[in-house]
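Hi F.,

I've been meaning to write this up properly since the lab meeting, where we talked about keeping a consistent format for the predictions we share between groups. The idea is simple: the sequence comes first, exactly as it goes in, then the structure tokens exactly as they come out, then a line or two of notes. No screenshots and no reformatting. I'm using this chain as the first example so we have something concrete to point to.
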Amino acid sequence: MSKPSIPQGTRDFSPAEVRKRQYIFKTLQTIFELYGFQPLETPSMENLVTLTGKYGEEGDRLIFKILNNGLNAQTDEYKGKMNVEWEKMLGKPYTSTLITERALRYDLTIPFARYVVMHQNELAFPFRRYQMQPVWRADRPQKGRYREFWQCDADVVGSPSLINEAELLAIYTSAFRSFGLPVTVKINSRKLLAALAELCGLPEKMMDITIALDKLDKIGWVGVAKELQERGIGDDGIWQIEKVINVSGTNEEKMVAFADIMQHSAAGMEGINELSKTLAYYKASGQEPGREGSEIEVDISLARGLNYYTGVIVEVVCSHPDVKMGSLGGGGRYDDLTGLFGLKGLSGVGVSFGIDRIYDVMDELKLFPEQLAQGTRALLVNTGGENEAYALQLLQQLRASGIAAEIYPDAAKLDKQMKYANKRGIPFVLIAGDTERVANRVSLKNFTTGEQLLLDAAACIVAIKNQA
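Output, unedited:
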């Protein structure tokens, strides 16, 4: 018999790990609610047609497709059709509704757009929603990259105002400050990328340039230049792109330089104006760029390789020198995402938090509060007989006082129960034997100090709470 295992790119989480992850979720939920966002959940699977064509050619390859039921149909006609479809799927990227009509969700944004279209008459716009659920991608697993992982999204639809971008920047900086995690929030505009394509004299190559630039952090400029060349960008165009992405200085200095280079591009000037207004709104809301380790940085190389972004785009990376990790979050403006489903003219903007990567970085840097590891605070030893009922009464009093407590279910040897408490990291053990029951007392052993006291229930509760 083979050993049990889990699919590659997935993980189990121990109780201690789940508590840490819940800390992240609760922190984000508090911030989302503070900013007026409402919770939403959508199904784990979507119709394949809902997802296909929304993430670019590379994204489409990573969608986990679900086989239709009934693939073992017995008719010769059905089998013949199936054989033809399978041959096509094996030969090249191809999808057959005969074989698959559904898929696991790739992200939370497209399902959200689908939801808005389906429920448009019930919603009050602008509609602000947050969503925290797992997503799936058929990617090659590596550090910080999983096939099953959680995203936490916050989106606003029904308003073109750049105040929304500024608010989402504030959500990012507030969240990472709460985590104690130093980050850089990179910001750009897809309109500047369109202007880059114009500078190259190849406006139709905007998506090719975007896809290549999106890999800058992974393969460096040499790798990007090679890919640009392979995608049909000439040497002069590559030189123009390199010149622009090498612009340095403060955000304001970069904007001045971009305006000089792109002064003849309407798209470029519009993108510069968007970035300037977003940063001004952010500052006006009391958020000071660079404060407490959450820096906002204009980065024209930021591409965000998803087809649906149309305006300001953002990405969060950890700025701690000892951490090597990809982006911890990202998002941007999508002017007509719902138009993909027939609802035109509804602008939206959103950001996403990569929960699994945030967890990994916080765990590596030991940023989780120590008390998160605490579950059960007190264990009632079970000595059997009449003492069992007495211990259960004490257990109820502890829980009524807000102390997480449990009773060992079996009347086992004392040494076994003590070892159990020690292995679980339970700081207090309460012994309610014959002597204690008759005296209406309990022996409280503090595993941290080694001290053991004979107390009544009320004093025992106070002693445990004083050691919180």
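Notes:
The mean pLDDT is 88.
The chain is about 40% helix and 20% strand.

If this format works for you, I'll send the rest the same way.

G.
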